[in-house]
Amino acid sequence: MEIKLGKNQYLLSERQDITGYRYKIHIDQYCMYLGEACNYYEYKSKIYMIGYAVDVEKPYYTIEEMCDELDNKLAQGLIGPESTRNWNGRWIILALTEKGIAAWGDCCGLKQLFYDGGSGIFCIASQARYIAQLYGYVEDQIAVAYIKQA
Which of 28, 63, 130, 148 is most buried by its number of CB atoms within 10 A? Predict the structure, then answer.
């Protein structure tokens, strides 16, 4: 299945047969597909950051130091936006937990995160159209008219 990922775009899915990406990363039973110029950082095969971030309270911290603190918070059960409340930037965090994958983004939604688990296919993407393509939906006349107007 071809899904053409744009610049700085991403798609995480259980499907292994997707083409049209620059880089592919295996995360448990999932594959994360990255488009051209999409920044990506992996921390100990359990925290994945797409984009970039700065800790406003500790601007001298590296991404590794930020993820080390985040890992400690995850171990204490602090998962989600509260654990990254001092992070600024344009990013998405994917964290492996005992229950599966937790995902959240920057507080302003500068790096978009769409997700779906319907039809037995779990996916997270930077654009809703990648999820629609994953399910095999095609643009009808109404969608085409809306996209042209938007």
Answer: 130
Overall size of the chain counted in residues = 150
Inter-residue contact 74 to 44 (CB < 8 Å)? no
CA dihedral 102, 55, 31, 109 (to 10 degrees): 70
- φ and ψ at 72, to 5 degrees? -65, -40
Asked whether 11 and 18 are in contact (CB, 8 A), the reply is yes
- Beta-carbon neighbour count of residue 92 at 10 Å? 21
Task: Work out the end-to-end distance of the chain between its first and last CA atoms, rounded to an integer number of angstroms.
Answer: 27
pTM: 0.89
Locate the domains of the chain by residue range.
10-149
